[in-house]
Design brief:
One of its GO terms (cellular component) is chloroplast thylakoid membrane. The protein has 189 residues and is mostly helical. Helices cover 90% and strands 0% of the residues.
């Protein structure tokens, strides 16, 4: 028994034993204070108010979490649907791009052949124009040469006639011409 009394006596020697005060260290007393408040609410409120309050808070939290999960699942479903639509559009656009690419290559090939054919036709026309121009220039040159030859022959003939004609020959030519004109006049009368 002496041990039990000694233990009570030793409690009296502790400086905090038997005194009541405030502990301002919030972190060390926070857990104890919360435990005391919960025990008081449960026992003195007979579990109804504290339990209702706590269960209502938990139910509200649970509903918010479930609503959030449901909304997330709906958003996920919408996002998956949009992703599938985007993939379908992407496949469609890729097919169209391939078709445009194939058509573009075909169009390029067709344009290339059209250009080659057009170039051949243009070259052919240019060759014809060249030949026509050459023939025209040759004909013009021939005509100029003929004209010069004719002019020179005419000058030479006039020169010869002028040198050969004297007054006597000139008078005889005039008489012969008058005679021919007279005979023509008689025939017509």
């Amino acid at each position: 028994m002496k041990n039990v009394t000694d233990s009570f006596v030793s409690l009296g020697r502790w400086p905090s034993a038997g005194s009541f005060g405030f502990n301002i260290d919030i972190f060390s007393t926070n857990l104890i204070n919360l435990s005391v408040v919960l025990v008081v609410l449960i026992f003195f409120g007979k579990g109804v108010c504290a339990g209702c309050l706590l269960s209502d808070l938990l139910d509200n939290r649970k509903q918010r979490i479930l609503n959030t999960i449901r909304n997330s699942e709906e958003l996920q479903g919408g996002a998956i649907e949009q992703l599938e639509k985007a993939r379908a559009r992407l496949r469609k656009v890729e097919k169209e791009a391939d078709q445009f690419r194939v058509n573009g290559y075909s169009e390029i090939e067709r344009e290339k052949w059209n250009l080659i054919n057009s170039t051949y036709k243009t070259l052919e026309q240019l060759e014809n124009y060249k030949n026509e121009t050459i023939q025209f220039e040759q004909q013009r040159a021939i005509n100029q040469v003929r004209q010069r030859v004719f002019q020179q022959a005419l000058r030479r003939a006039l020169g010869i006639l002028n040198s050969c004609l004297n007054n006597e020959l000139h008078l005889r030519t005039i008489s012969a011409n008058i005679g021919m004109l007279g005979s023509m006049k008689e025939i017509t009368d």
